Amino acid sequence: MKGKAFIGIFIWAFVLWLLLTMSLNVWELVTGVLVALFAAFAGASMLAETKWVDVLVNPAKWLGFIAYLGVLWIEIVKASIDVWMRAMGLKKPDVDAGVVAIQVPNESVESMVMLANSITLTPGTITAKIEPEKKTLYIHWIAVGDKEKWYEDIAAALNRGVRRVLP
User: Fold this and answer.
1) Are 69 and 43 found together in one domain?
2) CA–CA separation, 5 vs 111, rounded Å?
3) 29, 82: one domain
4) What is the Cα–Cα distance from 60 to 49, expressed in whole angstroms?
5) How crowded is residue 82: how many other Cβ atoms within 10 Å of its Cβ?
6) Model confidence over 4-31: pLDDT tens digits?
7) Which helix (H) or strand (E) holds 116?
8) Can you list the positions of beta strands (E) in 30-135?
9) In the chain, helix, strand, coil percent, each to 5?
10) Domain check: are 53 and 100 in the same one?
11) pTM score, two decimals?
12) What pLDDT band is residue 148 in, cutting at 50, 70 and 90?
């Protein structure tokens, strides 16, 4: 697995270098290779122990990650509009903030953390605690509302995107 992690980190670091420099100058390419090698040596042993190594080397997972970014963007925009409408008085304020516990069907800790971070990025929510052994996220939410719909309202769409990338 360490070899896959090394190759995956090297490729992604070099691609990122090319995107940031937007140059095919020989010295910049050599520098990019050196930086990518350093990143790969530094991170391969750590990344090899996670589920992310499979994402780095699998083009189908890359497409799943791009699709996830689209879903995340849509959810951020929807939540931003909702919070803005509440703040401007265009929507019934209905601020009933509280911490809710939602059960998630995720298999790996990495996917739970990715989901928790995604939830935290959407306005009106913040993940307060993750309990991987119980597969539970504790989320502070601006509008607690219907207890039966917490998972659907907060995490379902994001979790479908996360599950395309990580189990």
Assistant:
1) no
2) 18
3) no
4) 21
5) 16
6) 889 888 998 999 999 999 999 999 999 9
7) helix 109-121
8) 98-103, 125-131
9) 65, 15, 20
10) no
11) 0.78
12) low
